[in-house]
Amino acid sequence: MLPVIALVGRPNVGKSTLFNRMTNTRDALVADMPGVTRDRKYGEGKVGEQSYIVIDTGGISGDEKGIDHEMASQSLQAIEDADVVFFMVDGRAGLMPADALIADYLRRTEKTIYLVVNKTDGIDPDVAMSDFHTLGLGEPIPVAAAHNRGVTVLTEYCLSGFEEDEEPGDEEERRVRIAIVGRPNVGKSTLVNRLLGEERVIVFDEAGTTRDSIYIPYERDGKPYTLIDTAGVRRRKNITEVVEKFSIIKTLQSIKDANVVVLVIDARQGLTDQDLHMLGFIMETGRALVIALNKWDGMTEEEKKEIKEQIRRRLDFAGFARFHFISALYGSGVGEMYGSVNEAYESAMAKWPTNRLTLLLEDIVADHQPPQVGGHRIKLRYAHQGGSNPPIIVVHGNRTDHLPESYKRYLKNKFIKILKIHGTPVRFEFKTGE
Ligand code: GDP
Ligand code: GDP
Asked: Which of 183, 190, 307 for mutating ligand 2's site (highest number of atoms within 8 Å of CB)?
């Protein structure tokens, strides 16, 4: 499971700056999910081979009257979800009363806390840090988030106890891991039950924290799958019992952990910003994707037309995914989803030999040469596969940094078409040199 790091501290100590450093994503997944305040941001990052999730909790002003209230607030619940807390203070401002109040609170939680002293650029770090020993949270760690100093070391250090993303073993490798995700009430639990249907489910009962999803291994038509159930169906005694509320962390983790994500959207409600945020995160991770428009039963022709039009307009960027119009409640269209899941999985995990990709590249280039730049022709020499799930195709040549976007698009579309890739995004990298 991905470790989760929460950034906590007064306003202006540099939390967002550190968040941006740690995520390298242009757009954080802004979590305006139900029950989650807008000032909380989630992102994903990686040091070495270790991926993690980072949460910017927004500022705690820490005035004495309000602090219990603030601490109990939505944004601070992130601490409960986290494995590790970075408590940030400002090395230039020195120790403030609010820091001490926050520290008192943090000491009472059982989380692993790292005291991070930011803005140590251009000042004597020993002096900057000496103040903060009194907080009783261990040795302060100096960083300068704005200058990206100390950030990697800090992250590596705090994650050193966690296991690296593990490669699945042979048995696990063959299993298609499917995550069912979506907003609350779109029909995830109903769909999970449908998908499992009559299949023989290996029943097991595993204790976990509330942020863990349930992994359900089963077979269908002789093919092994593991369903990652974020809705907690199997933890309920009966379907009417609501065991836990929607958890964004659980959703993000299960997306990362899946081969194929099934994003469930409530067709009756139409596309919401929350659906699009979730889709944005799925796209960032590069997972294969199937989109289920649920509650298709009993919709009028007019309503169906409306949602199809919305999809065409707003989901263009996920055009590689197959769409299914289903009723999880009555079962219509659900069985057919397996076809798309399998197809997406095969494409996401496909392995292509270098000579095949290179021959393909030669053909594609022969059909349509790259343009000249500054009187020189860009040469594309060979291609090899750089990874799977998502597939990465690395194209080598000279001056590839001058390749126009339109030509890259042409190449990409050709590769996707000829290799018959469906249901997964494909990443292309261009390298210059031999
Ligand atoms: P947040 O409110 O805790 O999220 O703080 P921000 O990330 O918005 O940063 C507050 C201010 O501190 C901004 O003006 C940043 O440019 C500045 N800042 C952040 N990190 C550093 C740093 O490492 N050194 C210095 N000198 N300034 C920093
Ligand atoms: P979850 O929160 O995403 O797990 O959603 P649930 O599976 O608990 O479903 C929420 C509500 O939507 C329940 O009342 C379901 O009976 C209803 N529901 C789920 N799927 C369908 C469907 O295909 N059609 C209709 N009409 N209702 C559905």
From this structure: 190
Give the position, in ligand 1's atom list, of the atom nearest the Cα of 20.
7
pLDDT band at residue 329, thresholds of 50, 70 and 90?
very high
Q: Assess whether the C-beta atom of 121 lies below 6 angstroms from ligand 1.
A: yes
Please tell me whether 185 is known to bind a ligand: yes
Is position 130 annotated in a ligand binding site?
A: no
Task: Classify the complex by whether its ipTM is higher than 0.85, answering yes or no.
Answer: no
Choose which CATH entry (2.40.40.20, 3.30.300.20, 3.30.70.360, 3.40.50.261) describes domain 354-432. 3.30.300.20
pLDDT(252) > 50: yes
Rounded CA gap, 4 and 52, in Å? 6
Q: Is the CB of residue 16 below 6 angstroms from any atom belonging to ligand 1?
A: yes
171-348 and 354-432, same CATH topology: no
- CA 290 – CA 180 distance, rounded (Å): 10
Q: Count Cβ atoms below 10 Å from residue 335 Cβ, excluding itself.
A: 13
Q: Which residue has the least CA distance to atom 25 on ligand 1?
A: 119
Going 387 to 392 to 396 to 399, the CA torsion angle's sign is negative
Identify the architecture of domain 4-160 in CATH.
Answer: 3-Layer(aba) Sandwich (3.40)
Q: How far is the CA of 58 from the centre of ligand 1 (A)?
A: 13
> For the CA atoms of the chain, what is the radius of gyration?
24
Any binding-site annotation on 387? no
Nearest CA to ligand 1 atom 2: 12
Structural domain boundaries of the chain?
4-160, 171-348, 354-432
Give Cα 366 to chain centroid, integer Å: 38
Verify whether ligand 2 is closer than 6 Å to residue 187 (CB atom): yes
Q: Which atom of ligand 1 is nearest to the CA of 118?
A: 23
- Which whole-number Å values give the CA distances from 156 to 24, 167, 252, 257, in the listed order? 16, 20, 21, 21
122 appears as a binding residue in the annotation: no
| Tens-place pLDDT, residues 202-230 | 444 444 445 567 788 888 888 889 998 88
DSSP strand E in 20-69: where? 29-30, 41-47, 50-56
**Which atom from ligand 1 is nearest to the alpha carbon of 92?**
26
Q: Which CATH number is associated with domain 171-348? A: 3.40.50.300
Q: Would the pLDDT of 66 be above 70?
A: no
- The answer for 318, left when phi > 0, alpha when psi is -120 to 50, beta otherwise, is alpha
